[in-house]
Design goal:
The protein has helices at 8-17, 22-34, 36-52, 63-72, 83-109, 249-252, 262-270, 298-309; strands at 114-120, 125-128, 134-137, 141-148, 153-165, 174-178, 181-185, 189-194, 200-207, 209-213, 220-223, 227-231, 236-240, 254-261, 277-279, 288-294, 312-316, 319-323. The chain is of the alpha+beta class. Strand 12 and strand 13 form a beta hairpin.
């Protein structure tokens, strides 16, 4: 039986690499079954071998030299019965050399080539991503852009709201993840609103087309002019029939209100400007206006609204408060 296993190191190597004959496979399996020690040793070699396979390019090495380096540091075995273990250590040395290279290569291949984080706190931030795409972040928003050659995908984790003008690359998908929802560019400019405390996630497509979905739902394909909404509560998608004309006001600085109530006007303005507007009473929330603003100072906007509706303005710190008992009274 001892002679049968004299070359167990070579047999293990062939077994793990898939080059062993049926007879040789049987020999290895019988050796493993002899004792728990053999079994543990085999499993250890197997683990090392599997890690070594992560190396995608063939690494040239001299097995005999690797073994001699290990052997030179060891005392000559005094018990013949230990010979099979020295042989086993020989294959371990070879596998460890390969595994070391494999581990380093695996770590290197998984390091993203490009990573960038953009944060917008109290001001709107415009920035160019490493791939040349444009991102405009609304207040209280952030994104992390990651690209590595292994996945060949441009991935963005978004919190809040951002407009994207994507530099389309067919072989490098541009994918945004926000609260478990995925938005995939199909060559376009689009806006994503995904604030954590909002019950919905909205995607508005300005040009081109996007796929709007989750891993459990195929969702929607949206084209230019369309808005898609994802309802977090029931995890459902819907297409909006009417698009908010001021959806991109934080990016363009242009507001256009047509017979809009004052509560809606104030909400839209507050989403863009750092200073906030508040209404002093319920009576003026429903007051309606036809008005447009283009990159105006908030101070001037508030004065125009107050003058039109015959309201008064007071300041509380940086904020503005509109006061009145009715519309135009």
């Amino acid at each position: 039986m001892r002679e049968e296993f004299d070359h167990i190191d070579d047999l293990i190597g062939k077994y793990l690499s898939g080059e062993a004959s049926e007879q040789e496979r049987t020999q290895v399996e019988e050796w493993v079954a002899i004792s728990d020690s053999n079994k543990n040793q085999f499993n250890h070699f197997k683990l090392i071998f599997e890690r070594a396979k992560l190396v995608k390019t063939t690494q040239a090495y001299d097995a005999d030299k690797a073994w001699l380096r290990v052997k030179s540091k060891m005392a000559k075995p005094k018990i013949i019965r230990l010979q099979q273990y020295w042989n086993a250590l020989r294959i371990a040395a070879v596998l460890l050399v390969t595994a070391g290279v494999g581990y380093i290569a695996y770590q290197w291949m998984n390091v993203p080539d490009q990573v960038i984080t953009i944060v917008a706190q109290k001001e709107i931030v415009r920035d160019t991503l490493p791939d040349g795409s444009l991102a405009v972040l609304n207040k209280s928003s952030s994104l992390k852009y990651v690209y590595n050659t292994r996945s060949n995908q441009r991935k963005i984790a978004l919190v809040g709201e951002a407009f994207f003008e994507v530099k389309h690359q067919e072989d490098k998908p541009f994918i945004i993840e926000a609260n478990g929802v995925i938005i995939e560019d199909i060559g376009t400019t689009f806006n994503v609103s995904a604030f954590p405390d909002s019950p919905t996630i909205e995607v508005y497509v300005e040009t081109g087309e996007v796929a709007f979905y989750t891993l459990k739902d195929t969702g929607l394909n949206l084209v230019a002019g369309e808005t898609g909404v994802y309802h977090k509560a029931n995890q459902s998608f819907a297409r909006l029939l009417k698009t908010d004309t001021n959806r991109l006001a934080y990016k363009t600085g242009i507001f256009s209100f047509r017979n809009a109530d004052l509560e809606t006007i104030v909400k839209d303005l507050n989403s863009v400007y750092e200073a906030q507007i508040r209404l002093s009473s319920e009576a003026i929330k429903g007051c309606r206006l036809n008005v447009a603003f283009k990159n105006e100072r908030l101070e001037d906007i508030v004065e125009i609204i107050a003058e039109t509706l015959k309201l008064t303005v007071t300041r509380e710190g940086e904020d503005y408060v509109l006061n009145g008992n009715g519309c135009g009274n």
